[in-house]
Amino acid sequence: MWYFTREQRLGIIALSVIMIVIILVNGPVSRYIVNRQEAELGAENKAAWEKLNVQIQHSRELAQKQKPAEPFNSSGQTSKKVSASQERKTRSMIVLEINTAGREDWQRLRGIGPVLSERIVKYRDRLGGFSRVEQLREVYGISDSLYQSVKAGLKLDPTSAVRRYSVNTASLEELEKHPYISKTLAKQIVGYRSKVKSFETMEELQKLYAMNDTLYNKLLPYLTIY
């Protein structure tokens, strides 16, 4: 059995009291230190964020100052808007004579670029000229919607003549080059005039089995017996 002197007992009691005090005080102190560190860190982050926002705003203001302002006209519209409006108005006023318009002329119509204008001119040359405005629809790449949007700006001069081929003298190669004349039809035309007789009327072309009424009407402006 252990025995302590009076001085030892008093020492143990004092030591116990000190330990209890340390335990009670240590929790709040630790939380205070942690909270203080978090507050300091939060303040640093907030200061850094505010500094970054200031830099971003400064960059925006600098970029805005360096951007050239669009000039305004008397009605308050910018020149860019005025140019676009004028371009649409100009395009709507364009009227092309389809047998004389060049590649650059066709490109003035909305929806027709360099490639399509080249096709139009080449097809017109192969035909020997357009005999009807509607023939533009036969060009590859001319959709119905595109044709409807540009047809108001197209005209056909009634005095413009198309190239005509004589069914009695044109060679097989010349006939085959025309978009409306197939190789079969070209051979029948040449065969008829060389083995039967020369064509005396255009109606005789309808005797050829490769010919039909629709094709005959399309070909009439381009063929002659002379």
How does this structure look, described?
- With 226 residues, the protein is mostly helical.
- It folds into three domains: 1-40; 83-155, Photosystem II 12 kDa extrinsic protein (DNA polymerase, domain 1); 165-224, DNA polymerase, domain 1 (Orthogonal Bundle).
- 56% of the residues lie in helices and 4% in strands.
- It contains eight helices and four strands, in the order H-H-E-H-H-H-E-E-H-H-H-E.
- It has helices at 6-66, 79-93, 103-106, 114-127, 144-150, 172-177, 183-195, 213-219; strands at 96-97, 154-155, 165-166, 223-224.
- A two-stranded parallel sheet has the order 1-2. A two-stranded parallel sheet has the order 3-4.
- The radius of gyration is 47 Å and the shape is rod-shaped.
What attributes characterize this protein structure?
two-stranded parallel sheet; DNA polymerase, domain 1; two-stranded parallel ribbon; 226 residues; mainly alpha
Write the layout of secondary structure elements.
Blueprint: H1 6-66, H2 79-93, E1 96-97, H3 103-106, H4 114-127, H5 144-150, E2 154-155, E3 165-166, H6 172-177, H7 183-195, H8 213-219, E4 223-224
Parallel strand pairs: 1-2, 3-4
